Amino acid sequence: MAVTRVAGIEHAQSGDLTFVANPKYHHFLDTTKASAVLVTADVSRTPDGPALLICEHPYLVFAHALGVLANTASPVVGIDPSAQVAASAQFGEGVSVGALSVVGADVRIGARTVVHPGVIIGPGAVLGSDCVIHSRVSIRERVRLGDRVVVQDGAVLGSDGFGFVRQPDGTHLKIPQHADVVIEDDVEIGANTAIDRPAVGETRIRKGVKIDNLVQVAHGVSVGERTIFAAQVGIAGSTVVEEDVVLAGQVGVAGHIRIGKGVIATAQTGVPNSVDAGTMISGYPAIPNRDWLKSSAVFRNLPALKKRVVALEQRIAELEEKLDACRPPSED
Question: Which of 29, 101, 172, 322 could form a disulfide with 164 if both were Cys (CB 3.0 to 4.6 A apart)?
Answer without folding.
Answer: 172
